[in-house]
Amino acid sequence: MYKFDAVINNEFIKTESQLEIINPDGLLVAGTVAALNAEQINQAFQAARAAQKAWESESLLKRISILKKWSNLLLEQKEALAQIIMAEVGKSHSDAVNEVMRSVEYMDATFEEAKRMQPLSLTGQDFGVANKLGTFEHVAKGVGLAISPFNFPINLAMSKIAPALVMGNTLVFKPATAGSLTGSMLGKLAVEAGLPAGVFNVVTGRGREIGDLITQNKEINFINFTGSVDIGHRILDIATSKDIVLELGGKDPALVMDDSDLEKYASEIIVGAFSYSGQRCTAVKRVITTNAIADKLVPILADKIKKLKVGSPKDNAFITPVIDMKSADFIWELIQDSKKDGAKVITGDKREANLIYPTLVDFVTTKMRLAWEEPFGPVLPIIRIDDLQQSIEVINKSNFGLQASIYTKDIAQAIHLAKKIEVGTVNINGKSQRGPDSFPFLGVKDSGQGVQGIHEALLSVTRYKGIVINY
Ligand code: NAP
Ligand code: G3P
Q: What domain of life (predicted)?
């Protein structure tokens, strides 16, 4: 059993009430974290505010040297962190270790990129104003609030934390409840690494109880949120700060345009759809293709899906129990609804508590919920279309606009289609994915606002400060 306190102003805060974190694999308690009250939450923001100017005044290299100690500790504690991730979000051991390593690499790459964030130097010459010279420096925005989702408890936390802190901001970090053991461990390691008091504060508690309170705190200068559309929109409605980056849900389509290499396409689609049991924002969440191609593709997909290892993260299974029973019920409901409406389950459609077997559903039509809603679980619908024009309509009719993938040998046609698809990024002959982390990552429509990715994240936590010399 893990037991973590919250970290505010480098002090470990004990609370009367605690939050139980449930292991998805077996649904037993994995540990507890602090359930903070309003006063303690406010103290976290006050501490962040009090520390901010001094932290920003340190040289960039000094900030990096302190943060580097933190990334080294993450590396040293790689196995311990992986065990916590496995216990609280049900990731396989290899996925958990990869996530820790990806986060350490993210931190290091962010520190290197921060050194390249040089000021702009401009003259007024272009506009006929010869006597002006301006420098425009990237300066910290101040106090940030970072809120992360459950599915990548270190990576989607660190991709907010590292850019903010290295550029001289201070932070209040609210991890997802399933993710709070990992988030609290990050706080503990930050103290051990020697981050000054108040620079990084971890607040834990249920989002539905403390969410509104934290997003409305007057000290906040900017918010970076990753999670569901509903909560993202709620934050937009009520947050005090209007400087908000949102990375929200998706319904990423895979458009299969020809049958030149269906074996290869199918393998890529399966990793895209089913890794971490489909609990990725960028998971392939619908396949769109013609009748003729579907007739050949579906048996290949089914064959490969049947070979996926289903079971416990402890056995390094590929498909593991989804985060909780509520999510499993929702995924199950989408599958059962589609069946009632005439879709045909090809494989899967089996459930043991919150373990959903990987499910392939053919003949999903645009009248079915499964065509539009995000299951966030191991289910892949096939939507059959008549022609390419119809595929663009089906893709763009979605409220989501995170990513898409196109599979074809005809690269020229793929590029023409990619330009018409309303998403942040189109992947040609590869699954949708956020990584590599140096690529700009964004969603349009309900999938988000603002841009992540190492360079863009640094821009999002800074503003220009201009100084103009008239001579
Ligand atoms: P979620 O339920 O929206 O929760 C996300 C975070 O918001 C958690 O920390 C949650 O805390 C907190 N929260 C809940 N209510 C809040 C409120 N009223 N105010 C402020 N914060 C609040 O999402 P999730 O289930 O963790 O993650 C799955 C969703 O995230 C999916 O829709 C997925 O597509 C999306 N996602 C998007 C990306 C992307 O980059 N586009 C990446 C990963 C995931 P509690 O856990 O305590 O409720
Ligand atoms: O859920 C989201 C996402 O951040 C995972 O990253 O690179 O596997 O798409 P990636």
A: Bacteria
Instruction: Output the residue whose Cα is nearest ligand 2's atom 8.
Output: 433
Homologous superfamily of 252-443: Aldehyde Dehydrogenase; Chain A, domain 2 (3.40.309.10)
Rounded to 5 degrees, what angle do the CA atoms 98, 101, 102 make? 80
Across 14-18, 114-118, 150-154, least confident range: 14-18
Probe target for ligand 1 pocket from 88, 151, 186, with the most ligand atoms within 8 Å of CB:
151
Which are the contacts of 192, defined by CB distance < 8 A and separation ≥ 6? Answer: 73
pTM: 0.98
Query: HEC string of 271-334?
Result: HHHHHHHHCCCCCEEEEEEEHHHHHHHHHHHHHHHHCCCECCHHHCCCECCCCCHHHHHHHHHH
What are the helix and strand counts (H, E) for the chain? Answer: 14, 25
Query: Per the CATH hierarchy, to which homologous superfamily does domain 2-248+447-470 belong?
Result: Aldehyde Dehydrogenase; Chain A, domain 1 (3.40.605.10)
Measure 122 CA to ligand 2 centroid, in angstroms: 38
Which ligand ends up closest to the CA of 457?
A: 1
Ramachandran region, residue 277 (left: φ > 0; alpha: ψ -120 to 50; beta: rest): left
How buried is 130 (Cβ within 10 angstroms: 0-12 exposed, 13-18 middle, 19+ buried)? exposed
Average pLDDT, the chain: 97
Query: Residue 313 in contact with residue 91, Cβ under 8 Å?
Result: yes
Domain chopping of the chain, boundaries: 2-248+447-470, 252-443
DSSP state of 196: P
* Element holding 355 (H helix, E strand): strand 355-356
Q: How far apart are CA 201 and CA 211, in angstroms?
A: 16
Q: Tell which one of 274, 403, 434, 439 to mutate to probe ligand 2, the residue whose CB is within 8 A of the most ligand atoms.
A: 434
Atom index in ligand 2 nearest the CA of residue 275 equals 8
The residue annotated as part of the active site, out of 88, 219, 247, 268, is 247
The conformation of residue 179, written as its DSSP 8-state character, comes to T
- Ligand 1, atom 13: closest residue by C-alpha: 207
- The whole-number average pLDDT for the span 22-47 is 98
Q: Ligand 1 centroid to 228 CA: how many Å?
A: 5
At 442, the pLDDT band (50, 70, 90 cuts) reads very high
Q: Are 452 and 443 in contact (CB under 8 A)?
A: no
**Spatial distance between the Cα atoms of 424 and 348, rounded to a whole number of angstroms:** 31
Q: Is 174 in the pocket of ligand 2 (CB under 6 A)?
A: no
Query: pLDDT by residue (tens digit) across 219-247?
Result: 999 999 999 999 999 999 999 999 999 99
